[in-house]
Amino acid sequence: MIELILPATVATEAAYDDRPRPGDRLLSSEREVIARAVESRQREFTTVRHLARRALRRLGHPDRAILPNRRGAPQWPPGIVGSMTHCAGYRAAAVSPAELSAAVSIDAEPNGPLPAGVLNAIALPSERPHLVALAAHRPDVHWDRLLFSAKESVFKAWYPLTQRELDFSEAEIVIDPTQGAFTARLLVPGPLLGGRRVTVFPGRWHSTPALLTTAVHLPAPTPRRDREHRTHLTVNSPLPRPTFG
């Protein structure tokens, strides 16, 4: 699923269960990190790292430990950006060379309603009428859960670029129900990419009866020496939609 909403230059791997595959194993430092976790957490941690290593191999990287940092974000090899996700019935990893991508983030959620009280914690007043209109247009999608997933993808793209937290109230999401896209307008100063302030993160989404997936991809900034020959990104408009494979 996740490969449908990311550029072809991003290597992705996914699984719908935690069955071990030939050659899959945790490295010793990873086993230490997860040793005291409950069994279900150990399984999802293990599977998603197997997937990440498979994706990295496709980019020519040898196997190495993928350890979480203090925030829990995966620490990728130098020159790589990426993301992991796991939910009931789905695990995925996506990685890309940093020379092609400034940020890659993914999130997966069950296509079901959010638990009681969660929407009030994550949705801006401006987003709630939009969810009502979306539900009337396409009742097969749980739009409250998709909003949550989109904000998770935005945070996962934001954090590696800034090393700062981003609150749910600090990005306003507008979802396009027909194009499988969403736009996240940052309500705080965005990161600098190639000397330009990014104020909008573009995203994509996909749904099945069981699952929702979202992704954010920010292309790497154009090298300064080439900019005079290319069209500049405007600071206050969405980044161009990437080419999706």
UniProtKB/TrEMBL annotation:
A Pfam family that the UniProt record links to this protein: ACPS
Boundaries of every 4'-phosphopantetheinyl transferase domain copy: 104-181
GO BP terms in the entry: enterobactin biosynthetic process
GO molecular function: holo-[acyl-carrier-protein] synthase activity; magnesium ion binding
Residue numbers binding Mg(2+): D107, A108, E109
Keyword Transferase: yes
CC cofactor: Mg(2+)
Region (Disordered): 221-245
Stretches of the chain forming a coiled coil according to its record: none
One GO cellular component term noted in the UniProt record for this chain: plasma membrane
Binding site for CoA: R41, R49, T85, H86, D107, E152, K156, L166
Family matches, as InterPro entries: 4-PPantetheinyl_Trfase_dom, 4-PPantetheinyl_Trfase_dom_sf, 4PPT_N, Enbac_synth_compD-like
Highest taxon of the lineage: Bacteria
Domain 4'-phosphopantetheinyl transferase N-terminal positions: 30-96
Keywords associated with the record: Magnesium, Metal-binding, Transferase
Descriptive protein name: NysF
Lineage: Bacteria, Bacillati, Actinomycetota, Actinomycetes, Kitasatosporales
Annotated gene: nysF
